[in-house]
Amino acid sequence: MSRALRALALTAGAFSAYFHISPVLAQNAAPEAVEPGRRFGELVISITANRSPTAIQRVGSAISIIPGDTIRAGNQASLVQTLRNVPGLDITETGGPGGTTSIRLRGANAGQTLVLIDGIRVNDPSSGSGEFDFATVAPGLIDRIEVLRGPQSALYGSDAIGGVVNIITKRGKGPLQTFAQVEGGSYGTVLGNMSAHGRQGAISYAFAISALRTDKFSNYGYRVRRIEATRPNLENDPLNRYGGYARIGYDAGGPFRAEVGTMGTFTRSEYDAAFGSFPDTKSKVNTAFHSSYARAELDSFENRLKQSLVIYSNRTRRKYDSISYGATTLPANTFYDKYDYIGLRHGVEYQANIGLDRFGSLTLGGKLERETVENFTETLLPAPTARQRDVDKGQNSRALFALWQVPVGERFDLSLGARIDNYSNVATFRTWRATAAYRLDETGTKLRASAGTGGKAPTLYQLYAPIYGTATLKPEESFGGDIGLDQRFLDGRLKFSATAFYNRMKNLIDFDFATFTYQNIARAQTSGFELESEAVLWPEYLVLRGSYTNLRAVDRKTGLRLARRADHTGKVSLTITPAPKWTIEPSVTLVGKRFSSTNQTQRLAPYARLDALVSYKVNDNLDVYVRGENLTNSYYEDVRNYGTTGRAVYAGMRGTW
Length: 657
What we know:
With 657 residues, the chain is mainly β. It has 6 helices and 34 strands. The chain has a single domain, classed as Maltoporin, Chain A, CATH 2.40.170.
């Protein structure tokens, strides 16, 4: 038995002894009538924090929920500015909407953040580090996003070193309701979103489609003064994206429920080589993403045993037309290659939630999964070569997990979890997690803390890439924890949250230039604190919100800061309601200094960006709005030499019937 499991068993015994002499304790399960992610009075329910609906007041981990209204009010071409509301989350776009969009939680690498859609793992198996590209997701398809920070591999397995981002689509309920949105504006942008959801008897349904077209700007060099001074005629890199989802459920009010869901997006965008004598090229990438699942749930023993079984599959395909030039743009000096990456994942997962009355609840489960990768290359210029397969590999993984949620009295909640993951191509790794939350309802205070370990299996590309792959790589490992305070004042008119965190990582996989292969040679450490607040300055008229992250992320071998991690990030917004039908919301995003490349090279200057939204509610069904981005026309770079938006204005309308 592993040390983590022995610790879990010993702790369980100690608490069992305590409970035999204790009064009946409050239950940890959230009221079933409350929809996850929604508010009932002051109750907020998360389904990600503990793998089942749990009141946030009882959660010891740091978690943020972005509601659908906030997502729909933001930029429908990109999730970047919306996600910047979350403390501890950093995000970069290489050249605006359509460019690769990577997120990092608490300074961890992009591939160390696990991304779920409706609870299903969707990280791309064919990418170098297994990260998920948020540019492929249309914001209009999302109902809410839950961001769980800190090591969560004990709950979710590989990749959850920095945390988990769960993207959740809408579930049907009540009478038929439809939604439509159209928007147009700067950079030749036109978009539309439509959705319908409802319930008819035992059948619930939800459908949505989304489309976006924008001429955008040049990924390379746009509004980068040192580049535009010598290359004034940069070409635009347009983006087209289409997406949709469907979710159908069966629930007759009995012990059995079932649901099927599917989401798909297709993105066509141009990108630039960004190097050589002619960095502004007409390279293109087509990305097709699809994810589907079927879930069945069964309650028994008067709801003391809740079981679920889910079968899932997702596929990501990226097809590149890569164009670059030598000394001139003549055909004789043109390099034209085609790359095709196909990542496929399918699996089955079982979970049982067991109610133990005064002993809390126990979650047990297991998963079987298979990942495969295919990679093809073909050269058209200067000398044609036949299409060839470079990688055709797969691996199986198996996992067992357990989570015990323990209420101690009516104020104190503990959780203890452990998990074993076995990958057919690498060693087994074990992880654990413990959380605690203590509430002082009289003062509106919650104290919380969490600690745990994380693991990440090597990707198939890192294992088997031609020339660069190393088949003997080990899993990446981490240990991290946090301690925090959630405080409410003035009957909830003022809310404040503060969290201090720490994460130490080893066996990180990096490219070794000595051997020209991937190796477990890197170590890193991240630490800092997160602040989040909301103040109702004038009820019904004025609300102030803010978030801030202080981050120190360093390479433990060199002591130098990790690339693209800002030391300070924050966002402040003010919601003004001067009249019942009007809403004005200016916001300022602040990003401190950082380095675009390793070893503290290519320094990027700090910046501030002003955005604003003005909306008018025409009637109960329709509102119109104007949205402005970077209104002060700030010049800045997220990644060196890649463009960012200038002053831009968009107008649209939203209707619900």
